[in-house]
Automatic annotation (TrEMBL):
The keyword Transport applies. Residues 1-25 are annotated as: Disordered. Its main location: membrane. One of its GO terms (molecular function) is ATP binding. It is a peripheral membrane protein. SMART domains: AAA (SM00382). Keywords: ATP-binding, Cell membrane, Ion transport, Iron, Iron transport, Membrane, Nucleotide-binding, Transport. PANTHER family: IRON(3+)-HYDROXAMATE IMPORT ATP-BINDING PROTEIN FHUC. It comes from the Bacteria. It is found in: Cell membrane. This is ABC transporter ATP-binding protein.
Length: 294
């Protein structure tokens, strides 16, 4: 970890090569004793969390457990009431906004677009952190926006106002904006909201492609446990503002863990497609036992 007094700002922890042969940097993001509160009510209780560099981390847990709040804290959208978040070994709260935005992208749960803005203009805002006094819009920015529109299947929507789109279309456009930013760290809060099952799977495949092609470190808050198990390299299970388990899905996800975190009975099988844990909920009805006694 780089000492906070080091004059090196937000730069690489390690330099490696991406699959296309271009050098890329790898940054670190971690929380130490992180406490987060709303109106003096503590929601996250002093957690330690490090996102494994170059991996996909899924954060799961029941409603109200602090998943989204944790992501907001990592992205410094919410100031800690205790502890700190370190980006490349330095307190993220001390770093300039534009410098952080070149490294870390965030898609919050309920983003709001300005009235009348078109899809192209919104996605183009993902390139703003790369602009400056001596760096104006150029062909690289055009390519980044066009690529983001293409991979999210939103190119045909480019000229339309964002407000005229369906919920699923808007969600894909917001994801395109996050991708256009081309950051080494990408945080997404419930990105599958409003998407049908086919598009949920396509989105997870897209993010996996991004991770494998560019080594992007990705953290996602997700409600779908089976998609989280299938696509996560690292799984973080939260309950009531604390982390109760974390690690590779095959090591972390058991019927006991699911019961502890969600208060739900289940069977945990092996997914016949991916070999990852497959959670089968057990309710009070529509089970073999309930049918035999009815």
């Amino acid at each position: 970890m780089t000492p906070e007094g080091d004059m090196t700002t937000v730069h690489a922890r390690a330099a490696t090569d991406s699959s296309d042969g271009h050098p890329r940097t790898r940054h670190t993001l971690l929380a130490e004793g992180l406490r987060l509160s709303y109106d003096r009510k503590e929601v996250v209780h002093g957690i330690d969390l490090q996102l494994p560099p170059g991996k996909v981390t899924m954060i799961i847990g029941p409603n109200g457990c602090g998943k989204s709040t944790t992501l907001r804290g990592l992205a410094r959208l919410l100031d800690p009431s205790g502890g700190r978040v370190l980006l490349d070994g330095r307190d993220i709260g001390t770093l300039p906004n534009r410098e952080v935005a070149r490294v870390l992208g965030i898609l919050p749960q309920h983003p709001v677009a300005p009235d009348g803005i078109t899809v192209t203009d919104l996605v183009g805002r993902g390139r703003y952190p790369h602009q400056g006094w001596f760096r104006k819009w150029n062909a690289e920015d055009d390519e980044a926006v066009a690529r983001a529109l293409t991979v999210t299947n939103t190119a045909e929507l480019a000229g339309r106002p964002v407000g005229s789109l369906s919920g699923g279309q808007r969600q894909r456009v917001w994801i395109a904006m996050a991708l256009a930013q081309r950051t080494d760290l990408l945080l997404l809060d419930e990105p599958t909201t409003f998407l049908d099952l086919a598009n949920q799977v396509e989105l997870q495949d897209l993010l996996t492609d991004l991770n494998r092609r560019s080594g992007t470190t990705i953290a996602i808050v997700l409600h779908d446990l089976n998609l989280a198990c299938r696509y996560a390299d690292h799984l973080v299970c939260m309950k009531a503002g604390d982390i109760v388990a974390e690690g590779p899905p095959r090591e972390v996800v058991t019927a006991e863990t699911v019961s502890t975190v969600f208060g739900m009975r289940c069977d945990v099988l092996v997914d016949p497609v991916s070999g990852t844990p497959l959670i089968v909920p057990i309710g009070r009805h529509h089970t073999r036992d309930s049918e035999s006694t009815s």
